[in-house]
Amino acid sequence: MTDIAIVAYAARQQAEVEENELEMIAPLIEQVRSETGLGPDDIDFTCSGSSDFLAGAAFSFVLTLDATRPVPPIVESHVEMDGAWALYEAWVKLQIGEAKTALVYGYGKSSPGSLRDVLATQLDPYTVAPLWPDAFGIAGLQARLMLDAGDVTERDLAEVAARSLADAADNPNAVRAGAHSIDELLAEPYLHDPLRAHDCPARADGGAAVILAADDVARRVCERPAWIRAIDHRMDVHHFGVRDPRRARSAELAAQAVGVTSDKVDVAELDAPFSHQEPLLVRALGLDAANTRINPSGGSLTGHVMMAAGLVRLGEAATRVHRGDADRAVAHATSGPWLQQNLVAVLEGD
Amino acid sequence: MTAPLDPVAPPITLPPSLRDVEPVQRVRTPFRLDYEVSAGRSMAAYLRAMKEKRILGERCPVTGQVFVPPRGVTPTSGLVTTELVELPDRGYVESFCVTRVPIPGRDDLQLPYVSAWIVLDGASVGFLGLVADIPPEEVRLGLRVQAVWRPDDELGETADNIKYWAPTGEPDVEITSYEYVGQPGEAP
Amino acid sequence: MADDTVLRGHVTLEYPFTRSTGPVVGAFLTGLREGVIVGIRRADGSVLVPPCEYDPETAEPLTEIVEVADTGVVTSWCWNGAPRERQPFTSPYAWALITLDGAATPMLHAVRVDSPAAMQTGMRVRAKWRAEREGHISDIECFVPEDAS
């Protein structure tokens, strides 16, 4: 296995971005280039993640390619997925020796459309989508099952939200932050019983850019590379009735494949857009919450960019390793209703 | 003649209530999503200039090439680009296609119509436009053309302000290369 | 002189989409048109609703379409207090996972009650059928409490 590391990361999350997607992502790409000194000629492979359904146009990702300096032609790929999966593809490219450096980015500008309705289009087109159930309603069904079964209490959910909002005060990219007591949060009305507003993702426009580098290149451009020791992703079945919404089997399998529990985890950045999904993921990944700092960035509850939230978790985890705040970190990304698809990575610093 | 393919899956069995009725084989699932998109800084400048019958491009800070419409980042640099350049509303046909079949929803297009790749004087890339006021069989590579604009009271923030491109009558441009890596702003 | 205000434009993405169903999804929709709900039997004898062509766990083709009741139990629910365009109703209602009598798996639909206070996991509901049906998931207008008039 080749040693591959995240050597640079830049992100932006903002309630509403006025520029177009290209103008939004270009400065982030320039930032990771300048941090590493790796210009367009030094990048062997480029991969991005985004969604046409957010942009309201087919092949919308082509609009942002200008930021990658595609003339003269570059080696490039795209996934209609969160940028975390673009990072996975880039990691594979580096693993098989076809590249030593990769530029990865993910972005989403959901403010022009109605994200909660856009997400209804990913549901079964014959039996579910024609009812246009919105993403918050779908998530609420999962939360109710967990509450009914005693997996969590409403107090537990408010604790996740309170901790996330407090931690987000240190994150310039957070769109929601602040100090709130549990009781304050529990006094808020339901948005979608049993979910309150703070239990739901803090929608934002924005994106993230990451540079991956192998071996000696990583050591040359980054003082303390965040080595990707293992990365894996799995997918649960599509049929709602067959899934157990109280578990994310795909997250469990991905976590086992990467060996999350084989050593201490200092920091875990988990992509839990809804508060009830954090304890679900903690259990699925086998994390010891008492000895692991969960979502020091504030997580998706305090800033959630569709198509980049997972890549942001990877970047935030890597940043803690870069800074020396963590020696071993876990990053997780999700996609689809009820945590249908999950990617898990273990990052380590020397 | 080949035998018909066997179905991959075995046939299904139905309960009594569905055995003697016409099976449903299709279902209507209409799809609609609405968006309020923002043009972005560079495209907004381009569209606003369009309303004044001005065409803007942007100059690459690395190669000096001029791209139109301006996107805010030039593909030859990957850098945020802010230098806007005004271009004339005249250029030449780099390629074209004569279409004789109608497009649904475009009853405004008179058949046959000529779509062409228009390169403005001073631009390093072309864009799609209609060529008219010339019989289709006379359209040729290198044909010099000029924009025909809508009347002033019909102008909006849209490239649709240019109804089509018409021949100027000047001698054709001699196209020697389709590479855009030549001298910036020069016709190849 | 330059106008710095954000320039916006409206875009509508709209497609008519008529989907072909195949025999299994077709059977489910035929059932709805006929006023019955069907599922499909798995190797262990349990019935999947709505039916699907291949067993999600074993990938074997499934073939036996089975009728289930149009009554069942709410296994989860979430209140939709601010319905959105294209959703079943303009006034608040609940989304629910409903396990019909005879089915092993729940299906998703709307339950129409006046307030969240009337919803409870475990409550029994029955399908309220539309008078005119065409073979569409909304042939079931919604589910209502089983003892509702």
How is this structure best described in words?
The complex is a heterotrimer of chains A (350), B (188) and C (149). Chain A is of the alpha/beta class and 350 residues long. Chain A has a domain at 4-113 and 203-226: Peroxisomal Thiolase, Chain A, domain 1, CATH 3.40.47. Helix content of chain A is 32%, strand content 22%. Chain A has helices at 21-36, 52-55, 83-95, 115-118, 135-149, 154-167, 182-186, 215-221, 249-258, 277-285, 309-323; strands spanning 4-14, 45-49, 76-79, 101-108, 190-192, 195-196, 203-214, 226-235, 267-269, 293-294, 304-305, 328-335, 341-348. In chain A, strands 1, 2, 3, 4, 7, 8, 9, 10, 11, 12 and 13 form an eleven-stranded mixed sheet that branches. In chain A, strands 5-6 form a two-stranded antiparallel ribbon. In chain A, α3 (83-95) packs across α11 and α9 crosses α10. The longest helix of chain A is centred in the N-terminal third of the chain and has 16 residues, at 21-36. With 188 residues, chain B is mainly β. Chain B has a domain at 41-167. In chain B, β7 (113-120) and β8 form a beta hairpin. The longest helix of chain B is centred in the first third of the chain and has 11 residues, at 41-51. Chain B starts with 15 loop residues before the first helix and ends in a 21-residue tail after the last strand. Mean pLDDT of chain B is 90; it is low at 181-188. Chain C has one domain. The mean pLDDT of chain C is 95. Helices cover 9% and strands 38% of the residues of chain C. Chain C has a five-stranded antiparallel sheet, with no helix packed on it. Chain C has a three-stranded antiparallel sheet with strand order 4-3-5, with helices on one face. Chains in contact: A-B, A-C, B-C.
| Inertia-based shape of chain B | elongated
Q: Write the element-wise H/E pattern of chain C from the N-terminal end onward.
A: EEHEEEEEEEE
Give the overall average pLDDT of chain C: 95
Number of helices of chain B: 2
Strand coverage percent of chain C: 35-45%
Q: What is the number of beta strands of chain C? A: 10
Low-pLDDT runs of chain C: none
Instruction: Determine the mean pLDDT of chain B.
Output: 90
How many whole angstroms does the radius of gyration of chain B measure? 25 Å
Number of strands of chain B: 10
* Separation, N- and C-terminal Cα atoms of chain B: 54 Å
Approximate helicity band of chain C: under 10%
> Residue share in helices of chain B?
under 10%
